[in-house]
Specification:
elongated; 6-stranded antiparallel beta sheet; alpha/beta; 552 residues
Length: 552
C-alpha cells in the first residue's frame, strides 16, 4: 500500500524544502513552486492534498463522525474490543468515521492520552508501569481498526504533537521566566534551571526509532525542579524562541503545558514526519484529529499534513482542534495552511451553549451567526460538545440537556458540515458525577439523517423563539424529506414547504413530541406544530426508517 511510486523524487523534493517553509525563508514564488510540486505529486498518486470529502459527498452520504470516547472512560484496557463489538451498531447509526482517543503511551495507564510520552508505543512496551494504554494493547487497536474497516467505517486517530510529558530524566539548561498572562514579557535574565526534558524510552530500546529527546527539542517547560517553582520557563538557545505562527492569545500562545515541543527545530520536524509516516503504515488509519493546533506552528502543521497525504496511497481526512470563538481566526488558519485540514466549529458550539443558558431570551434566528459552517462548510466539522467541554474539564461549556436535541438537529439535519456525535452525549459520562446518555432522544435524529435528510434545504427563520427548515428529499432516497421545528419558549407552528413532489403525503414526528400525522396540501406545504421548548422532526410515514421509530 505504501510502496514507492514514480513520483517519489518529487515527494522528496517537497520534503527537503519543508524546513525552509517553516522557517519562512523561502521567497514567495518558491513557496508556490513547492506547493505546485506537491500538488503534481498528489495528482500522480491520485490522492488529494485537501480533505477528501466534497460537498456532494457530504450531501449524498449523510455519514457522521463519532467521537468514540469521553474523559472518564474506565481504564479497563477493553476499549478497542468495545469498538470492534459495536461496529455493526455504528453502521445502523450512520457512522462513517470514528475519532478514537490518543492511542500511544502516555504518563500512566489512567492517562486519557493527552499527556503524550512515547508516540511509537501503541501498547507494546513495558513503559510507565504498563504495557497496554488506558484503552488496550497494540494488537487490540489494530484488530479494532480492521473490524471497523470491514464495516466501511473510517478511523481518525487523535494526535498530540504539541507537547510531551512524563520525561525519563531531568536536564539542566538556561531559561528565562515568562509572564503567564503575557507571554511576550520576560521576567528574568537567563539562568540555569532543571527541567523534565530527557526522553530516552528505555522500555522500547530504540525499536522503530532511535531518536531521543533533550531540552534543545523544546521551547519551554512548566517547572524548575531545582527550586520547585512552577511557571513558564522559556528555554534559551540558538534560534530558539516561541513560534510566531501560533495564536496571539496571551501575546503568544505557543506554550500550553508540559514540555512544549519546538516544531521549528529541524531534528524535531524530521522526527515527527518520520513518526507520522510510520504511524500511518503501522495502523492504516484514515486520518487524524490534530490536538491543540493553535499552539503549534501553523507552517509546520500545514507541511506535516501535506507530507502525510503525499506518503499515503489513500485519501486521508484531517481535522484540527483550534479552540477559538473568532471565526475569522479560524478561516485565516484554514487559508494559511492551504485548506489541508478542516476545523471543528467552536463558534457554533458556543452559540449552542449560549442558547441553552439563555432559554427564551435567546434569538434562535441567530443560532448560525458567526459560525464556521456559514463561512466554509466543506472545511467544517460541527459538534455540540466534546471531551474538553464536558463538566470538570478545562474548556467547560457543556450545552444544557434540554437544548441538546435542538443542537443536534442543527448539525445532523441541515445540509452542511461533517457532524460529530459525542460519546458522552450518546452513551453517557462517567466519573464521580455521572451523566446519563441521551441515546433515546438522539436515535430518532440519527435515523432521520440517515434515511430522510436529503434534497434542497428551505429555511423559516422568521421568529426569535420558533424556527424551522425542510430538506425536501430527492429521487435517490425513497421516502426522503424532513421538516424540523424547534422552540425555546411557547408552543407554535410553522408553515414549511416540502415541494410538490411530496404533495398530499402524510408526515409524523419521529421524536414523539408531537402526536398524530400532518398531511401536506397539493403544493407540498403544511403547518407543523412544536410543543413549548421542544423539538419536532417530521418525516414521511413511508420513510424507510426502522419500525421502532414509526410512532404515528
Amino acid at each position: 500500500m505504501f510502496e514507492d511510486k514514480n513520483n517519489v523524487e518529487a515527494v522528496q523534493q517537497v520534503a527537503e524544502r519543508l524546513h525552509e517553509e517553516v522557517w519562512d525563508i523561502l521567497p514567495e514564488h518558491e513557496k508556490d513552486a513547492v506547493y505546485d510540486l506537491a500538488l503534481e505529486a498528489a495528482q500522480e498518486k491520485n490522492v488529494p492534498l485537501e480533505n477528501p470529502f466534497s460537498m456532494e459527498d457530504l450531501h449524498n452520504r449523510n455519514m457522521i463522525m463519532l467521537q468514540g470516547f469521553e474523559w472518564y472512560l474506565e481504564s479497563s484496557g477493553n476499549y478497542y474490543d468495545w469498538l470492534s463489538k459495536n461496529a455493526r451498531e455504528f453502521v445502523k447509526m450512520g457512522v462513517g468515521g470514528v475519532w478514537i482517543p490518543p492511542c500511544y503511551k502516555a504518563t500512566s495507564v489512567d492517562d486519557v492520552g493527552y499527556g503524550a510520552y512515547d508516540l511509537y508505543d501503541l501498547g507494546e512496551f513495558n513503559q510507565k508501569g504498563t504495557v497496554r494504554t488506558k484503552y488496550g494493547t497494540k494488537s487490540q487497536l489494530k484488530r479494532a481498526i480492521s473490524v471497523l474497516h470491514r464495516h466501511n467505517i473510517q478511523v481518525y486517530a487523535d494526535v498530540v504533537l504539541n507537547h510531551k510529558a512524563g520525561a525519563d530524566n531531568t536536564e539542566t539548561f538556561k531559561a528565562v521566566k515568562i509572564n503567564p498572562k503575557n507571554r511576550l514579557i520576560q521576567e528574568s535574565e537567563p539562568y540555569d534551571i532543571q527541567g523534565w526534558t530527557s526522553f530516552t524510552f528505555p522500555g522500547r530500546k530504540g525499536k522503530y526509532s532511535d531518536f531521543t529527546w533533550n531540552f534543545e527539542h523544546f521551547t519551554a517547560v512548566d517547572s524548575d525542579v531545582k527550586t520547585g517553582e512552577n511557571g513558564i520557563f522559556r528555554i534559551i538557545g540558538e534560534h530558539k524562541n516561541f513560534s510566531p505562527n501560533v495564536s496571539k492569545d496571551l501575546g503568544n500562545y505557543d506554550y500550553l503545558m508540559f514540555a512544549d515541543v519546538d516544531c521549528r527545530n529541524k531534528e524535531v520536524m524530521d522526527e515527527l514526519i518520520k513518526w507520522g509516516e510510520w504511524f500511518l503504515k503501522e495502523t492504516d488509519v484514515d486520518g487524524m484529529r490534530m490536538d491543540a493546533i493553535k499552539h503549534i506552528d501553523s507552517a509546520f502543521m500545514g507541511a506535516f499534513v501535506r507530507q502525510m497525504r503525499l506518503f499515503s496511497d489513500k485519501p486521508l481526512y484531517f481535522v484540527g482542534e483550534y479552540w477559538s470563538r473568532d471565526t475569522k481566526e479560524l478561516a485565516d488558519y484554514i487559508e494559511s495552511t492551504r485548506d489541508v485540514l478542516a476545523l471543528f466549529d467552536v463558534p457554533l458550539h458556543f452559540n449552542f451553549y449560549k442558547a441553552s443558558q439563555e432559554g427564551s431570551a435567546y434569538d434562535l434566528r441567530t443560532i448560525l451567526d458567526g459560525s464556521l459552517l456559514n463561512l466554509d462548510p466543506i472545511n467544517t466539522a460541527t459538534f455540540v460538545d466534546n471531551h474538553d467541554s464536558q463538566p470538570g474539564q478545562s474548556l467547560f461549556s457543556f450545552v444544557d440537556r434540554w437544548f441538546k436535541p435542538h443542537a443536534y438537529s442543527i448539525i445532523l439535519l441541515r445540509q452542511d458540515g461533517y457532524p460529530c456525535l459525542f460519546y458522552g452525549d450518546y452513551y453517557g459520562i462517567g466519573g464521580e458525577h455521572p451523566i446519563e446518555g441521551m441515546k433515546q432522544e438522539l436515535d430518532p435524529l440519527l435515523a432521520a439523517r440517515k434515511h430522510c435528510a436529503y434534497g434542497e434545504q428551505v429555511d423559516n427563520f422568521k421568529s426569535p423563539n420558533l424556527i424551522g427548515w425542510t430538506r425536501q428529499g430527492d429521487s435517490k432516497h425513497y421516502g426522503s424529506g424532513v421538516a424540523v421545528v424547534m422552540s425555546n419558549a411557547s408552543s407554535g407552528a410553522l408553515e414549511l414547504n416540502l415541494g410538490k413532489h411530496n404533495a398530499n403525503k402524510l408526515f409524523f414526528d419521529i421524536t414523539g413530541n408531537t402526536k398524530g400525522s400532518i398531511k401536506l396540501n397539493s403544493e407540498g406545504v403544511a403547518h407543523f406544530p412544536c410543543a413549548p421548548g421542544k423539538l419536532s422532526v417530521f418525516i414521511r410515514q413511508d420513510a424507510p426508517v426502522p419500525r421502532k421509530f414509526k410512532v404515528f
